[in-house]
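Side project, low priority. Logging it here so it doesn't get lost.
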Amino acid sequence: MAARLDIDLLRSFVTVAETAALSRAADRIGRSQAALSMQMKRLEDLVGQPLLTRTGRGVLLTVQGERLLVHARRILASHDDAMADFSGGSLGGSLRFGCPDDYAQAFLPYLLRSFAQLHPAAAIEVMCAATPRLQAQLERGGLDLALISIPLGAERDILRHEDLVWVQPRDHTGIWADPLPLALGDPDTLDHRAALTALDRAGCGYRIAYASGSLSGLLAVVRSGQAIAVLTRPAVPADLKILARTNGLPPLPRIGITIRIPERHASPLARAFAGHVRAVLPEL
């Protein structure tokens, strides 16, 4: 009789591939590392090929392992779709969701709370980072789906339009120095590029006082009165104020928010959460 691939073995294998470490994979699936190692040995025996190479820093997939990963994700997606279709009711399992820092406080609590009411057995792991970092994680398989910022016109599936705004401390009353000190996100983020483009077009001098992917660090610099920042309007905290257009700074563009999900490998839970975000986010 031909060997048959076991769903549990494939699910464990995909987790090992995504975490690149048996210890982290064992924690995620709730097994001991020894039990997980035995599962991987059974899977290698089934396919008759070495799938993993152990290194001092974790595990790497062999060429055969990379080939099996493609099949495993496709098999698991079809299996989970079928189970969800016939089981009905709420979904369980876990997924990894990426969200930019500036949207986390504004939108994430309600999105998670309202989804939990529909699917109380679902567990959602959240990663907050700048859009370029989230996109990189999606490409590597480190996230199941992510909310990201995009320029308007980049695509049609935009869930919200948000203004980029200049912000400063509420108690700041003086005139900002020339060149204008800026606290911005990483150089490849939309806020950073939009700020510099707007200032360059207006012929305004500026200097980068702070540039980092850490929103908390950026806000700390602004609160100290050392620089002004560019944020999306929903991300502006109560102790900062939006600078009016009459202050001499150039206008900033609007941006779009969309959801990215690798549809080919998405689980029913990931698809359900993406659908929930698409339905709820425009109304927040």
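Brief comment: The longest strand covers residues 160-169.
Revisit when time allows.
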